[in-house]
């Protein structure tokens, strides 16, 4: 396994005090702490070359877990290995194998062009000159960076900076990518370009990708497998399709008829409990997958259908329902 995590726990000692001047004065001489557990007994395996979405609400433990995997934090308890290395030891070979891209952080030098950061990273990672040039040329072509390479970073748009951040993080050809909100703040065109690039890099280099994002379009486009964490614990680990089926097994069917829907058909659909909306010649149904064929056959037999669409529930709605269920007492 490329990544193996066993019973990972990460806790912090957080100072606490009451409100007011007297509490502030007491805290100068006697500070009180409470223990906050950000990750609580998480275990999972990820094979080389997998693309995995790591999802959860704010404060669920996603970024803390990524930082433990990347070696930025040490585990309180448990075992973590990435490519056979213990991340907390931060061995040189391990650091050359991984990269962490955070959408809200930047490594680019603000007043210098991206090429200077690229050259610095080449020196840090000791990338041979020929490999550096080959990799940089490929990244520039894939991300369309020609026009921005020699501009000061402060003059670049957010989307241009984000693409340069990706290029800087991948110059040493890492085998494991930890991506924390990589498309945050980007417009839809830039989001699509970044997703396409990540997928191409994964397929070309066999790299393992762990992605955290609140943009469910990122997950839908990139991640066949998803892990869901809530309150520091894994509440789901499996295929994206199976998650949708588990939480929202129904499919939304929208039918536009050539004439107003017959009253008998509307009544039959209502009795089945699948009619969600009916307006003139338009029907909106919520149908279980097992009953889909039967319901569609009934609609087609009773009415002339001009247009028909079958949609899966949006992943953001599925996640909202899952979080609501896990939060319920």
Task: Please describe what this structure looks like.
The protein is of the alpha/beta class. It folds into two domains: 3-7 and 40-244, 3-Layer(aba) Sandwich (Rossmann fold); 250-312, 2-Layer Sandwich (Alpha-Beta Plaits). The protein is built from twelve helices and 13 strands. The protein has helices at 21-29, 62-70, 92-97, 114-125, 129-143, 158-170, 188-205, 216-222, 240-247, 263-272, 292-302, 315-327; strands spanning 3-16, 32-46, 51-55, 77-82, 98-102, 176-180, 208-212, 225-230, 233-239, 250-257, 275-279, 282-288, 305-311. A six-stranded mixed beta sheet has the order 5-6-7-3-8-9, with helices on both faces. Strands 11-12-10-13 form a four-stranded antiparallel beta sheet, with helices on one face. Helix 4 runs parallel beside helix 6 (158-170) and helix 5 packs antiparallel against helix 6. The longest helix is centred in the middle third of the chain and has 18 residues, at 188-205. The protein starts with a strand and ends with a helix.
Give a nutshell description of this structure.
This protein is of the alpha/beta class and 329 residues long. The chain has helices spanning 21-29, 62-70, 92-97, 114-125, 129-143, 158-170, 188-205, 216-222, 240-247, 263-272, 292-302, 315-327, and strands at 3-16, 32-46, 51-55, 77-82, 98-102, 176-180, 208-212, 225-230, 233-239, 250-257, 275-279, 282-288, 305-311.
